[in-house]
Design a protein that fits this description.
InterPro entries: Dihaem_cytochrome-c, Multihaem_cyt_sf. The chain is mostly helical. The chain has one domain (about 1-135). About 40% of the residues lie in helices and about 0% in strands. Bound molecules: heme C (2 copies).
Length: about 140
């Protein structure tokens, strides 16, 4: 997986070392990983603010066009984990609740042009592992 990410970044003419996010160590939680990693990458909690996580977890029935509703117990357990490990400051906050719309994300990805975002192997900004491999997810 790590290799595939490296190859893709090289195809963009970028230096992988430059984009190596391995210092992003990610705390884990089995329930979170299972529920929030089933449709897409399990996004590390520190990449979004606690307030954004609270809003996201309270609207899972209308989750970016999908229904990701959980029972109340699982919801609370996962929210506790996300809040405990959330990022702090404006940099980690976005009105759309998308990590890919936060100031830190936009800043750290400013070298990427439109064509690269829509590369068929990437498809979406939300598809972190297409470029970063599993490293970004703390695996
Ligand atoms: C039923 C499928 C499904 C489940 C389960 C699910 N999601 Fe999502 N999620 C989506 C879809 C679809 C998108 C939009 C993806 C896109 O735009 O490419 C999304 C997007 C997101 C985004 C925004 C990504 C970005 O662009 O920055 C976050 C954050 C997120 N989900 C968090 C979670 C969390 C936390 C959980 C667990 C409680 C979860 N998701 C469970 C389907 C799901
Ligand atoms: C199109 C490929 C691509 C996608 C998709 C992508 N990234 Fe990145 N990311 C990069 C590149 C390239 C850099 C390095 C940019 C630079 O250093 O200027 C980067 C930088 C980063 C950094 C900073 C790295 C560091 O060492 O501090 C983080 C964190 C990060 N990305 C997380 C994510 C997350 C989380 C997602 C999904 C929500 C994501 N990225 C989606 C290509 C991508």
């Amino acid at each position: 997986m790590k290799r595939a990410g490296a190859i893709l970044l090289l195809a963009f003419g970028m230096n992988l070392a430059y984009a190596d996010p391995s210092r992003l160590s990610t705390p884990s939680d089995a329930k979170w990983k299972q529920e929030c990693g089933s449709c897409h990458d399990a996004y590390p909690p520190r990449l979004l603010s606690a307030d954004n996580w609270r809003r996201l977890m309270s609207s899972l029935d209308k989750h970016f066009g999908a229904n990701a509703e959980l029972d109340a117990r699982d919801n609370k357990k996962i929210l506790d984990f996300l809040e405990r490990n959330a990022g702090s400051g404006e940099r980690y906050s976005s009105s759309t609740l998308r990590i890919s719309d936060t100031p830190w994300f936009i800043h750290d990805h400013r070298v990427i042009n439109k064509k690269e975002w829509t590369n068929p192997e990437v498809r979406s900004r939300s598809n972190c592992s297409a470029c970063h491999g599993r490293v970004i997810l703390g695996d």
